[in-house]
Amino acid sequence: MAQAIARYHVTDLKGFYELMAQTREVRVQAVAALAAGRPPEPAFAHSLENALLNLRETLRPDGKAELEVAPGRSMELDLGYELGELEKDLLYLRQGEAALLAYLDELQPGFSAETALAADTLRGLRFRAWITDRDGTTNNYCGRYNSSIQSVYNAVFLSRYARANVGRSVFITSAPLQDPGIVNVSVNPENSFIYAASKGRECLDLEGVRRVFPIEEEKQALLDSFNTRMEALLEEPEYEIFTLIGSGYQKKFGQTTIARQDITGTIPEAESRAFLARIKEMTARVDPEGGHFRIEDTGLDVEVILTVDDGQGGKDFSKAEGVDFLNSTFDLGLDQGPNLVSGDTRSDLPLAEAVLRHSADTWAVFVTRDEELARVVRELAPRSLIVSCPDVLVAALGALA
Ligand SMILES: [Mg+2]
Fold it and tell me: Is residue 200 part of a domain?
C-alpha cells in the first residue's frame, strides 16, 4: 500500500520532486487495481487531491510556482503538466471514463471528433509489435523529466490497447532507464510494456530483467570514471543546483546528460559557462587522448557521449540502432509485421524508417501539428495517421480495447 499523501507545504524543489514521486506510487496502485478489474480505493483519489492542493499552494498570482532551489535562491516553474494531469486523474478516478473524455473535449474543441476519427482509422487492426516514443507522443509534454509522472488514465488506456491489440509493445526513449529514468515516471501495469531507454541501449524486459547493448569494457570504465567524478562534484553545495534544474543529472547507458541551464535561465550565464568548462576539463582528464567521448552542448544540457566504434572514428547510437537491437533481443518479429510505430518529432523519423525497413507492413502514427512533418510521415509510410496531441492518441487507443 502506497503511503497516503497528506496536505503539507511544499517549499523547495526537492520537496516538489518528492511529492511527485509519491504521486507515482499512488498511481501505480490505482492502475494495478483498474487493470485487475477492481474499483480503485477512494484513498487513491484522496491522496492525489492532497498532492494537487499542495502544488496549487506554491502558485503565485501569475500562475507560476516559485520554489527554493538552494537557500536564498528560488526558481520559477510552470506546473501546467503536473497540475493538469492530477486534475484529469481525479476526475477519472472519481467520475469515470465518460466524465474524463467530456472534460478533454471541453479543454480542446474538436477533441471527441478527432479521437473518433483516429479510432476509426485503426479499428480492427492487430499488430505484432508496437514501438513508441513517450514524451510528446503518448505522454503530454512536461519541461522537467523527473516530474513527468504518467497519469492513471494514460496508463490504463495504453496498456488496455496493448493487451488487446498488440503482441509486444515497447517504449523507446532517449531518457535513461532508472533512478532516475523512464521507469520512475511510468505507472503502466506490470508485464504490459518493455522499456527501452538511452535510445534502446538499455532495456527492461517484461520480466523486469535489464538487457543492454554491449559497450566495450574499456569504454565503459572511462564513462564510469567520469560519472564518479561528476557525482562527487554535484554533491558539493555550490553545484547541487545543477541536479535540480531542467534535465538534471541523467546517467544514461553510454551517455551522461548534465543540465547547465534551464529554459527560465535560473543559472547566471557566467556560472553556467564556468560549469561547462568544468565538465570539459573533467572529460579531458578521464579521456586525455580524446576520441572516446564526444561532448554536445545545447546551451541547456551538456551531453557527454561515449562513441560507438564503427571502424571510422566512432559514431553515435540512434533509435534506429536501438530498433535493430530490440528486434533481435526480444524477438519482436518486425520483419513479419504488421507493426505500429509512433512518434512526435523529426528525431523520431529514423525510428519510423528503421521499423519500415524491417517491414513495409507498418503503420506510422505521428502526434504533431507541424504540417511539414506530417507530409514527410505520409510520404515515408504507406499507411499513416496524424493526430494533434497525445491525449487524442491515448483516448483513441483506449477506445479500441
Ligand atoms: Mg517525443
Answer: no
E strand or H helix that includes residue 132: strand 127-132
386 Cα: distance to centroid of ligand 1 (angstroms): 14
153: helix, strand or coil: helix
CA of 236 to the centre of ligand 1 (A): 33
Q: What is the pTM of this model?
A: 0.90
112 CA to centre of ligand 1 in angstroms: 23
CA distance 318 to 348: 10
The answer to whether residue 16 sits within a structural domain is yes
Cβ(180)–Cβ(140) below 8 Å: no
116/340 Cα distance (integer angstroms): 19
Question: Percent of the chain having pLDDT more than 70?
Answer: 98
Question: Which tens digits make up the pLDDT trace of 258-281?
Answer: 999 988 888 999 999 999 999 999
In a domain, 311, yes or no: no
Residues spanned by the domain of 297: 217-306
What domain count does the chain have? Answer: 2
- Give the residue from 252, 280, 306 where a domain finishes: 306
Ligand 1 centroid to residue 247 C-alpha, Å: 15
CATH number of the domain bearing residue 292: 3.30.70.3080
Between the CA of 141 and the centroid of ligand 1 the distance, in Å, is 8
Residue 373 C-alpha to ligand 1 middle, in angstroms? 13
